[in-house]
Amino acid sequence: MKRALTLVLIVALFAGINFGLYMTMTRRLRQNFSGASQLRMVDVRRFLPHEVDSDLARIDSSLHFEEGDDLPVLDGAAALVPVYASVIDNCYPEGCVTYEGGVFDDDNKYGENFAPDSAMQYQNTIRGFTDVVDGSTDLFFTAHPNAEQMQYAEEQGVELEIVPIGMEAFVFFVNADSPVEDLTTDQIRAIYRNEITNWNEVGGPNRMINPVTRVTGSGSQSMMDRFMEDNMLTRRNPLSIFGGSIGYSFRYYLTGLVGNDGVKMLSVNGVIPDAENIRNGTYPLTANFYVVYRSDNDNPNVTRLVDWLLSEEGQSMIEQTGYVGLN
Amino acid sequence: MKDKTFIKALVITLAVCIALTLAHIGYIMYAYKNSSIIYFISQEIWP
Predict the structure, then answer these.
(1) End-to-end alpha-carbon separation of chain A, Å?
(2) Which of A90, A127, A213, B23 has the greatest count of CB atoms below 10 A from its CB?
(3) What pLDDT does residue A213 have?
(4) pTM: predicted TM-score of the whole model, two decimal places
(5) Of A22, A30, A247, which has the smallest distance from its Cβ to B41's Cβ?
(6) What are the chain A neighbours of B39 within 8 Å (beta carbons)?
(7) How far away is chain A from the Cα of B47, in angstroms, using its nearest Cα?
């Protein structure tokens, strides 16, 4: 009897361990186990140009390309899909975008497919940047390219024009139930350098901090590298994975595109990252976003489109998508 | 339960439990590396 009980206890012990792992980790990962999931977050079908129900900024544009014009091919970061899809919606003729849909899997890492001759593409930052350098994309909407991407362009002998077209806030976020509301920039840097490892060092409860990072080459990771002045933790306590997490992203991506109520943005140095504070410069972590194109691109419609983006009309469209314009 | 039977049952039980737990941990390591951080953080439990 005692021996049978021993076996039962062993099974119960392991069941308990696995239940604990499930509650703290597995449950939070179950929708995201594919190799491509981190880059998948935008449902492009919401932003297809010339569709009645699309969630796009529609203005009375004075720039209209016609069928038969040399239409610049647009691509961009996931977070900027609403911007460049709105450009096409306002300035391009109907029928220039061919969306073929797509099943999300490891061979089609974004779950989205546009026909090769479509004026709109969606390849996100990492693949899309390569395409603008190689010439298959004319205009690429993105955060500032990182050093690696600039080096790639240089190696290919390609000179790029990088034109700022709007502003965005770089934000840090935690779980919505976390009692922490504000961090200073120094505290954030210390967290990501392993100098602060417990929330109680920054006014929170006694709980380890889990500083989550992003994939190299993504727009948010490039911004983070600049914020950290390329001095970021490389190793951390593996048990911190069970701690209270902090992550980073761009404001519009977090609130406008993903819109997850389970997380909240932190104010930084006491300033909330809202449109007003981004515009007036009081929020300390603002960044421009850009349109990138090859200097030797001889399609005149490329510069026409860039000029339009910088015009009152273009800036108004950018504001209507939820971003902040340059002025 | 005889000694021999018990030891055999003990070894098999431990082996199965450890194998399943290691597989679970392996899955977590793979999934964590590739997960959406926004979803991951949104599902965190705070007392």
Answers:
(1) 79
(2) A90
(3) 86
(4) 0.74
(5) A247
(6) 28, 31-32, 260, 262
(7) 8
Give residue for tokens 């709980």: A207
B34 belongs to a structural domain: yes
Mean pLDDT, consecutive 10-residue stretches, chain A (327 aa), reads 90 95 85 47 83 92 93 90 95 93 64 84 80 92 86 94 94 96 96 94 94 79 85 79 91 80 94 90 91 95 96 94 86
B47 in any annotated domain: no
For B39, the closest chain A residue by CA position comes to A28
**pLDDT beneath 50, residues of chain B:** none
- ipTM for the complex shown: 0.90
A window 256-275, beta carbon within 8 A of B:
258, 260-263
Q: Which helix (H) or strand (E) holds A175?
A: strand A160-175
List Cβ neighbours of A161 (8 Å cut-off, separation of 6 or more). A292, A293, A294, A295, A306
Domains of chain A and any CATH numbers: 39-167+288-321 (3.40.190.10), 169-279 (3.40.190.10)
Q: Does A200 touch chain B (CB under 8 A)?
A: no
Do the chains contact at A249 and B38, CB–CB below 8 Å? Answer: yes
**Whole-number pLDDT of residue A33:** 43
Q: How many CB pairs under 8 A join A and B?
A: 118
b vs e for A247-275, b when ≥16 Cβ sit within 10 Å of the residue's Cβ?
A: bbbbbbbbbebbebeebbbbbbeebbbeb
Total domains in the fold of chain B: 1
Helix-strand-coil split of chain B, %, nearest 5: 80, 0, 20
Paired residues of A120 in beta bridges: A74
Q: Are B31 and A32 a contacting pair at CB < 8 A? A: yes
* Nearest residue in A to B26, CA atom: A26
- Residue A216 confidence (pLDDT): 73
Quick check: A35 and B17 CB within 8 A? Answer: no
